């Protein structure tokens, strides 16, 4: 969920509150002046609006590669330019930072900061300049508080054309990922029936790109996974709204279920694009609203709400994207199990889905993309769903 400073925000916050989101990417192109001097106070009003609406921001300071061709040119800037920006924004907007003290607001603020969205799409920023700017940004943030996280804003080349080097930007920052100056990598995944068809197997997954990028970069440290954009393209063979919603459930759990090289969950957050937008604003492929005044959800937005209603307060315990295609989450009142019963996403056969029940389990609810499918009374330590139709992702909520 991305909100841009200066853009209309009422539909966005309606959408975020309706689905039950708690985080959002705050995206700005106007965060410094033409002399590359940061202007953090320009974020003050947007920060207050986010606070009042219960949304914690993830900061994104944008830099377009096309800026280098302006008259006069606006280069990305030096290590020192970005160190200053990182330090000033972190000092002002971290929890209990300057902004919080000025407004008497405690324990609210940004802990994750990113810069320069999708540099691999235009592929115009010199790789060394990008590296040095990103290193300065991370060092500036960490000079204020080493616990804050710096992340390169999203990459798209693996999704677009299978380039695991991210058109050279990945190897350019591999040392920053290896050293821990960058907490992880942000991948944008737009599933498409022709170009990235998840229906053909998990080779068309966020997990696959994450793995191939780490291998291409030669990373030994187990980095974290971020996703500030993903969606199902409602185009050509996937134009039907209900089909797109079914596929979107798989896409959600593909991103949420990312694991690292050690097999443990590695996902920090995953945001879809574009929750508040109508087809008139963002085109028919990705828009997740049917109207914006008032905001009303399209089927994919309903699926997102369903997931957050079921799992928003849960913790991912395990994920097995390479074998069974299943996940396990735990919460205060129950457990949630997820199964990708799609071709190439699971080695379970015949629609049989065995679940190990937690102690005291009394009921299992089977959920699909369109809602509750069935309810079963259970006892003992296991339960098996029989003959579930293929071509879907399922969720099973177990309560005590």
List key phrases describing it.
alpha/beta, TIM Barrel, Immunoglobulin-like, 2 domains, 5-stranded parallel β-sheet, 24% strand, globular
How is this structure best summarized?
This protein is an alpha/beta fold and 400 residues long. It has 13 helices and 20 strands.
Any overview of this molecule?
With 400 residues, the protein is of the alpha/beta class. The chain has two domains: 2-312, TIM Barrel, CATH 3.20.20.80; 326-399, Sandwich (Immunoglobulin-like). 30% of the residues lie in helices and 24% in strands. The chain contains 13 helices and 20 strands. The protein has helices spanning 10-19, 44-52, 79-93, 98-103, 119-122, 127-144, 157-161, 169-172, 174-179, 206-217, 241-256, 279-282, 299-311; strands at 2-4, 23-28, 56-61, 112-115, 149-152, 184-186, 189-191, 224-227, 230-232, 267-270, 289-292, 295-297, 315-320, 326-330, 334-341, 353-356, 363-368, 371-377, 382-385, 392-399. Strands 13-14-15-20-17-18 form a six-stranded antiparallel beta sheet, with helices on one face. A five-stranded parallel beta sheet has the order 1-2-3-4-5, with helices on one face. A three-stranded parallel beta sheet has the order 6-8-10, with helices on one face. β17 and β18 (371-377) form a beta hairpin. The radius of gyration is 21 Å and the shape is globular. The model has no long low-confidence stretch (mean pLDDT 95).
């Amino acid at each position: 969920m991305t909100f841009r400073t200066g853009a209309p925000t009422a539909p966005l916050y309606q959408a975020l509150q309706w689905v039950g989101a708690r985080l959002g990417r705050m995206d700005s192109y106007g965060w410094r002046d033409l002399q590359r001097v940061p202007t953090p106070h320009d974020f003050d009003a947007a920060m207050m609006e986010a606070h009042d609406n219960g949304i914690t921001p993830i900061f994104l300071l944008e830099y377009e590669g096309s800026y280098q061709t302006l008259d006069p040119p606006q280069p990305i800037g030096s290590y020192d330019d970005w160190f200053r920006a990182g330090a000033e924004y972190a000092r002002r907007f971290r929890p209990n930072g300057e902004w919080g003290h000025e407004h008497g607001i405690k324990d609210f603020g940004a802990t994750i900061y990113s810069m320069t969205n999708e540099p691999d799409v235009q592929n115009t920023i010199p790789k060394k300049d990008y590296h040095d700017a990103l290193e300065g940004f991370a060092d500036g943030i960490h000079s204020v508080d080493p616990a804050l996280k710096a992340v390169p804003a999203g990459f798209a080349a693996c999704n677009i054309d299978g380039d695991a080097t991210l058109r050279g930007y990945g190897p350019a920052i591999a040392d920053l990922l290896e050293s821990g100056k960058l907490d992880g990598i942000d991948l944008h995944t737009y599933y498409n029936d022709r170009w990235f068809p998840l229906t053909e197997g998990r080779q068309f997954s966020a997990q696959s790109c994450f793995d191939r990028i780490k291998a291409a970069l030669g990373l030994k440290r187990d980095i974290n996974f971020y996703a500030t954009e993903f969606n199902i393209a409602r185009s050509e063979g996937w134009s039907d709204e209900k089909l797109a919603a079914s596929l979107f459930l798989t896409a959600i759990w593909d991103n949420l279920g990312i694991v690292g090289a050690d097999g443990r969950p590695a996902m920090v957050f995953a945001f879809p694009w574009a929750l508040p937008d109508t087809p008139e604003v963002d085109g028919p492929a990705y828009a997740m609203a049917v109207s914006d005044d008032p905001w009303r959800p399209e089927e994919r937005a309903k699926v997102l709400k369903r997931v957050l209603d079921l799992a928003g307060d849960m913790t991912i315990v395990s994920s097995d994207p390479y074998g069974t295609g299943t996940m396990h989450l735990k919460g205060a009142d129950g457990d949630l199990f997820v199964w990708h019963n799609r071709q190439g996403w699971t080695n379970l056969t015949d629609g049989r889905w065995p679940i190990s029940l937690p102690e005291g389990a009394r009921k299992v609810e089977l959920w699909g993309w369109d809602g509750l499918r069935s309810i079963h009374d259970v006892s003992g330590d296991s339960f098996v769903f029989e003959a579930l139709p293929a071509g879907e992702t399922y969720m099973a909520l177990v309560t005590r």
